[in-house]
Amino acid sequence: MKTKTEQMYASMSPWSLFFKVAAPGMISMFAMSVYSIIEGIFIGQTLGEGAFAAINIAMPLVMINFSLADLIGVGASVPISVALGKDEHDVANNVFSCSVIMIFCVSVLMGSVMFFAADPLARLMGADGALLETSVRYLRTVALCSPLSAIFFAMDNYLRISGFVKTSMVINIVSNLLTIGLLTFFLLVCEMDVVGSALATSVSMCLCSVAAMTPFVFRRALLKFVRPRFSLSMFRQIGACGSPVFLNNVSGRITSILMNISLMSVGVKVLGAGGGQTAVAVYAVLMYSSDLCWPLLYGISDSLSPALGYNWGAKNYDRVKNIVRCAYIGTAVIGLISTAALFFFPGAIASWFIKAEDVRLLEISTHAIRLFSMAYLFRWIGVSTQGLFSAIEKPLCATLISVGTAFVFPTVLLGALWGFGLDGIWFNFVGVNILSGILSLLLIVRLMREIGRMEKPDMARAKTCEETNTDQ
Fold first, then answer.
1. For residue 331, how far is the Cα from the chain centroid?
2. For the segment 74-131, what is each residue's pLDDT rounded down to a tens digit?
3. Which residues contact 19 (CB under 8 A, 6 or more apart)?
4. What secondary structure letter does DSSP report for 216?
5. Quick check: is 460 in a domain?
6. Quick check: helix, strand or coil at residue 446?
């Protein structure tokens, strides 16, 4: 007998499912990014340009630290959803249990590496002096908490698979409120520097990781902890399904490192002494500004993944296409709204993160945000298509999109637009998403043809059964 969650995935109308699942998912993902935006406001307004640049130097390394944990969490979610669609609950529970253990072990390893290698890694990106010292302290603080904080992201996926969509949303909102409270306490009351920011984020994520595991520990969720049975085939399946997100994370962070190195060089050339730090700070403003928009796109795609995986496993291809159609329409609307907000209000958005007296930084950031805004006219295409391929166990296509978007396209354009100075770097994001959109459309056309071929035998069998029944 199907659970309520399985019935929802299998029979609820696509638009009802969209608003039931994607709307809370958008709120949840946006709530997860609010702490980042608030962190940017606190740091920009209280600590200034130097701290802004230090955290932007450290952030790619922080995200690489979480990348393997994210690989396991996302990679396990796909076979779990497909197994549930096939009514193989034992398989789903085993993958779930094994993945949580794997995330903890990997996070201990990655956190240790980041803690002890923080200094040489920060130097690699051109940091020195006070910028180096600040970046290293931020990195080591995050690394100490990573074994528990990394589980937070995966538990969010498992809650949604189990039908705890609103619970996931509430935990993410609480996480951000807690982070904001801790930021206020550490930065304003205790007058700490960037270490206070790292502590606020890490402590909040650790506490909410514990809260997110509660339904599973007390066996109130669709997924349950069981005695783990590890196998090579399971590792391969998780690795294959999680590789698009993993490669996207890692290649994206490598690109960020290349961007920071380029900005340190181009910034001095264009802006003079101290221009490298200013250029990196502008890049940080762009990333914080993007946090206003991209979580809404990703929230739609990520929230609908369990439903897509379930119906793909159940061979309900018409339903898969209808859900995908809703996802594209929803993300397209969000993309247009995001472009308008960033294009028409760049100065207001930049001023959230920059002190009024930092006139040069504010002017450059305003100009950069306006150029950057055009990326959201196209970004929704790649996000939605990559999410679709990840959900239906087609990791190669998803990987092509993710690696192209996160590494290949930006690296190629970084060289092609080098002669345009800082504007070439800001426009890089637009060009990347145009190329990603073209690649995504080519792959989605190929997928629709494949679905059409798979539907023909089913239609033929249905017609044969109908004729047999008529004869009888």
1. 15
2. 888 888 887 887 788 888 889 888 988 998 888 888 888 888 988 888 887 767 777 7
3. none
4. H
5. yes
6. helix
